[in-house]
């Protein structure tokens, strides 16, 4: 079935800008096999067939940010594992928009 996840990586660097480290994390997630990704202003959304791919992407993001030299990483992760049917991130948005029409 389908697993959706959203991760927000917050590198603690002493600067108010985080775009360099966020780009490094996003690139690592994007390179993870079996993951479809969408970058948003507040995080990265992931879609996979298996939770292990999502967890591998999270691990890759943390590893990449560590290699970028930060002293601390705080991440917020939400996972939605739907077991009764396949559903894409896009179809979830369409379902809400349909009710708004």
UniProtKB/TrEMBL annotation:
One of its GO terms (cellular component) is cytosol. Residues 5-97 form the Thiamine-binding protein domain. It comes from the Archaea. Pfam families: Thiamine_BP (PF01910). Belongs to the UPF0045 family. NCBIfam families: MTH1187 family thiamine-binding protein (TIGR00106). This is Uncharacterized protein, MTH1187 family. It comes from Candidatus Nitrososphaera evergladensis SR1.
């Amino acid at each position: 079935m389908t697993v959706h996840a959203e991760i927000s990586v917050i590198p603690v660097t002493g600067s108010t800008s985080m775009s360099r480290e966020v780009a490094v994390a996003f690139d690592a997630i994007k390179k993870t096999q079996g993951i479809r990704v969408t970058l948003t202003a507040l995080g990265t959304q992931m879609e996979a067939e298996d939770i292990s791919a999502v967890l591998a992407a999270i691990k890759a993001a943390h590893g990449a940010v560590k290699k970028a030299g930060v002293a601390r990483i705080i991440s917020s992760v939400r996972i939605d594992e739907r077991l009764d049917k396949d559903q894409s991130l896009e179809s979830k948005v369409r379902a809400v928009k349909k009710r708004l029409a």
